Amino acid sequence: MKNLVPITIFCLASGAAMAQSQTLTGQVLDANGRPVVGATVVEKGTNNGTGTDGNGRFTLRARAQAPTLVVSSIGFASQEVTGGNGPIRVQLAEASTGLSEVQIVGSRSQNRSVTDSPSPVDVIDIREVTAKTGQLDVNQLLQFVAPSFNSNRQTGSDGADHVDPASLRGLGPDQTLVLVNGKRQHQSALVNLFGSRGRGNTGTDLNVIPAASIERIEILRDGAAAQYGSDAIAGVINIVLKKTTNELTVSTNYGAYDAKYRFDDQNFDGGNFNANANYGVKVGEQGGYVNATLDYNQREHTQRANVPAEDGIARREYGDPQVKNGAAYLNAKFPINDKAQVYAFGGLNKRRGDSYAWTRFADDDRNVPSIYPNGFDPIITSDIWDGSAVVGAQLLAGGWNLDLSNNFGSNRFEYGVENTLNASLGANSPTTFNAGGFQLQQNVVGLSATRNYKTVLDGFNLAVGAEYRREWYSLFAGEEASYRNYDPAGTPDSLRRAAGSQGFPGYQPSDAIKAKRSNFGAYVDAELNVTQQWLVAAALRFENYSDFGSTLNYKLATRYNLTEFLTLRGTYSTGFRAPSLAQVNFNSTFTNFIQGQPVEVLLARNNSAVTQKLGIPSLKQETSNSANIGLTSRIGSALSLTLDGYYIKIDDRVVLTSQFSADDPVIGPDLQALNVGQAQFFANAASTKSLGLDAVLSHTLALNGGRLNSTLAANFNRLRIDRVQTSGRLTGREDEFFGPREQAFVKASAPPSKINLTFDYQMGRFGALLRFVRFADVKLIDYDGQEQVYDSRITTDLALSYSLTDHLQLSVGSSNLFNRYPSFFNPQVTETGGAWDPVQMGSNGRFYFAKLQARF
């Protein structure tokens, strides 16, 4: 009887919907009157939709009597039409930009579409991706959609367990610039120190922005420092926030891993729950809006310590961290009149995480048996606050589009350690510590002006602008018990206990610092259509940093339409990346005692007494030269192909060096004189060359009353360490300064190739997605100096979706359907203490998920 009531209500609602429904037919064409194959036609405020066939035609049973249809297709501007009597004819314009739109990344032209950009740009429709895949956060969504993008979930990597490093084209996380609505997003305050990804790098935390707040993501796969400034050596990721109105979207998602390797009998672990809501309201009659998103995500630990490794057990607890994440984001525009508007966007993200540190077994001299008779597994906790706010105004005046904005962002990372102790305090030790942390803040004031001259040849676009950026970095100490050794003075070394909180010793007062710098940049960016077939473009940018000086960079680009179906394009650019304030100022100290005297083990900041004594120069900017040559081919709207080969040469890369000890034959006396037992530091120590190819083949087919989208996308790349630069007292010691092990971490930022084959089928209310991703082998070097080869793997994802009603859609499926794991190794010698290091495919096995989405 209890089940009869909801079934009856559902049937009545469905019957009412059918009674009111009507069948609409129509055709979708491009600006030249050609059919657009595979365009999406959705009844607004519902999940009721369809796609166009090989002739651009569609049939849709609409619920409302006069429904509003939203028609969209990649490369075209979305259009809303009202259905009525008779066939509907929709003519889509190419996706260009204007006062009311966010520009396509890679071009400042008001008339440039993604399809005719001289640089390769991927446009990812997040609504389509999130509805049919098991990944919930932005990093993992892009990891399995964009072949040139790589991100890894770290384990056993301290702070990096809580902030996933991400990169483009196999370069470092800090060599990709991230924009939100075209404005520079601030970086994370974290420096990645351990693990195999992003070692020594800072990067931008993409996961602070909930996927539910995003309309699309544009990935510019080309050097763009001359256009956008520091960090854009590998490319640019532009996140475009939603601006929909009068539509409420609510989603709940849950998934869990097949717990194959556990000590207990638990069948599933790593449960991941996500709930989000997005809604927008109109403001005025000139296209104004306020769009808001709330998002909550909770991810549980996985346990992967019990694996068939070669031999040895290094840890009892090993797996993904537990994370709780809440976010609120807003995107708004307020028109003043038809020539002026004010805009604002930004959000706040709060993350709480805890990850496993290395096990201290019962007989470990770092254990106190009276507290932990069976030993203990320290937990490293994080409290991360991330916020951003952008306000600005746009104005059309004298043919110029003017944009004045202020952009503030902040990231604060606080460490804690739980289930641990300070062994030097014995049985009196607390088991929870505040270990300190760091914060990075950024404020950018920008002014830009863009104008299009339609009468100069076939069109000339000119953009000029200037930015003033201030950055602040602070590192603050933890509580005294998190770093101090409390053994009495004169205690023999053999009797001294380990200092500080086990698992993660706190930052000391000597580590603490407050630093700041300013930067001024100015640019000019021009694009000229010499003819309808031939485009040439150039950009020039000057930057001046208060801490290391000036740099001037340029970019040249061209695109030529050989035929209606074939286009050639190419770019050449110089670029730079300023060392982050965190890399310049980070300092970490751990105290050991030798012969009763305290000796420091430290990662020394760049201007410290240690680096100055050893002759390590101040950090300077990385510089790059990039070239890209490619072709695009589009036969109608059903088949498209892009091929882009690239070359990236980077000099003076900032890396984290090897460790040097006080018994070193050359610099040992210097370290001893400074009372330092072991030291490492950041230096402009490496130059690299990358050669690669991006390929994307897309096809749309009308099949059995439905639509099949097929995509084959691949990235092939080879990164080579061209040379290692040493300096000061370490001149000539390249293999020890930045040796093979550290070089392997840099090369492993991406596999040599990643190939993605996706089939996406939609027929009426039913949808299916099948995806294969091949990750090539990855090579690392373990603690014993032996090469570890993580063999290539193919993962398979399958998702099925069904619209239960016009407003409610259910999706179920599995990621890594066949439960593939990386190659196993001895956990005693891996970087993380588990049977593998973090590699591109992930290390948790099969993931099952279900999603329920309501749209009104």
Give the distance, in angstroms, between the N- and C-terminal Cα atoms. 29 Å
**If you average the pLDDT, what whole number results?**
87
Write down the overall geometry: globular
Q: Looking at CATH, which topology of the largest domain would you report?
A: Maltoporin, Chain A
CATH class of the largest domain: Mainly Beta
CATH superfamily of the largest domain: TonB-dependent receptor, beta-barrel domain
Summarize the model shown:
The chain has 856 residues and is mainly β.
List keywords for this structure.
single chain, 856 residues, mainly beta, Immunoglobulin-like, Maltoporin, Chain A, 2 domains, 22-stranded antiparallel barrel, five-stranded mixed sheet, disordered N terminus
Task: Describe it.
Its main location: membrane. Keywords: Cell outer membrane, Membrane, Receptor, Signal, TonB box, Transmembrane, Transmembrane beta strand, Transport. InterPro entries: Beta-barrel_TonB, Beta-barrel_TonB_sf, CarboxyPept-like_regulatory, Plug_dom, Plug_dom_sf, TonB-dep_rcpt-like. It is found in: Cell outer membrane. Belongs to the TonB-dependent receptor family. With 856 residues, the protein is mainly beta. The protein folds into two domains: 72 residues, Carboxypeptidase-like, regulatory domain (Immunoglobulin-like, Sandwich), CATH 2.60.40.1120; 742 residues, TonB-dependent receptor, beta-barrel domain (Maltoporin, Chain A). The protein is built from nine helices and 41 strands. The chain has a 22-stranded antiparallel β-barrel. Strands 8-13-14-11-12 form a five-stranded mixed sheet. A four-stranded antiparallel sheet has the order 3-2-5-6, with no helix packed on it. It is globular, with a radius of gyration of 28 Å. The two termini are 29 Å apart. The N terminus is likely disordered.
